[in-house]
Amino acid sequence: MIAAVPSSFMTRVLSGIQPTGDIHLGNFLGALRQWAIDQHLHDSFYCAVDLHAVTVQQDPVELRSKTLETMATLVSVGLDPEVCTLFVQSHVPYHTELSWLLECTVSFGELRRMTQFKDKSAKQGDGGQEHVSAGLFTYPALMAADILIYDADRVPVGDDQRQHLELTRDVAERFNSRYGQTFVLPEAAIPKIAARVMDLQEPTNKMSKSSESPMGTVGIFEDTNSIAKKFKRAITDSENQVRFDFDAKPGVSNLLSILGAATDRDPASLADEYDQYGPLKNDTAEAIIDALEPVQNRRAELLADPAELDRIIARGAEKASEVAAITVQRAKDAMGFLPGG
Ligand code: TRP
């Protein structure tokens, strides 16, 4: 028998997902499927980042139900609470404690340069909604805390989070040079050939949780008929030629990209196998329905046993807290806080 690798020698991985909106095909193919693979290769931590969600105002009833749903989804896509550590961010209050220490390490200027903050705050301003919370501004310090508190080596994220990861490294380095070696410097793990999953109706936009075109977004728990219908009605073009070229043919290329991601094939070579849009749409729908079937079945099992989900969530908080408590104490000691608190 091969002995298990002790976790202290394994790469530590951490990622988070916001519990807002419905989880769709883009999240599944782009991130969650990879998380489910990574959990067997690395010591993995995954969380629903509810504290990040409240940087914009949330309806309390909705936040609660979306957080629960997100956790159910993470389990359904195959994250095994016995294999990885699966938790709700706010259940581990050490995150906010470390976040404060990091807010005092990061500079105002660094936070002001974050493009996500610039974009989001500009959008809120435009909509006549003047309230831009201070939390939206300090969001990257909390994200850095999420990562550094678990000594994560790798952080699987989309390209839009690259800048936050660089900031996390800068903050960790500054802290270490001011106060002595405390944090591990994490690397962003950005998939090289990210499955591009665009809106089926507006294929130049990313499929998004907040999309205004329900026909363009496929939720991972949608029923089979509705998924099939959405692919059948997906926007293509009038050229009637199957080619993988996102600039010239975004709709067709999106279908190829989704089919490729679902079947582990190269989208460009898949294009050679089709000369009509109809069969491409059908095969893509079928591949997605097949990939989602086990996820949907697991979800049904979980919904039938809500106590099981509660147990998983409580266990995750406990496992995560054990690790987080140690790191925060290390950081506080390094900064000179009086011991014994
Ligand atoms: N900011 C990330 C996003 O919007 C979510 C997130 C919060 C995260 N904390 C994290 C991702 C820590 C990776 C690691 O997608």
List keywords for this structure.
single chain, 341 residues, mainly alpha, two-stranded parallel ribbon, 5 strands, 6% strand, binds tryptophan
Walk me through what this model shows.
By secondary structure, this protein is mainly alpha-helical. The protein has helices at residues 25-41, 50-53, 60-76, 94-103, 108-112, 115-126, 134-148, 162-179, 224-232, 250-263, 267-271, 277-303, 306-335; strands at residues 12-17, 43-48, 85-88, 154-156, 187-189. The strands form two sheets. Strands 1-2-3 form a three-stranded parallel beta sheet. β1, α1 (25-41) and β2 form a beta-alpha-beta unit. The N and C termini lie far apart (46 Å). The site of tryptophan (TRP) has 12 residues, from β1 and α7.
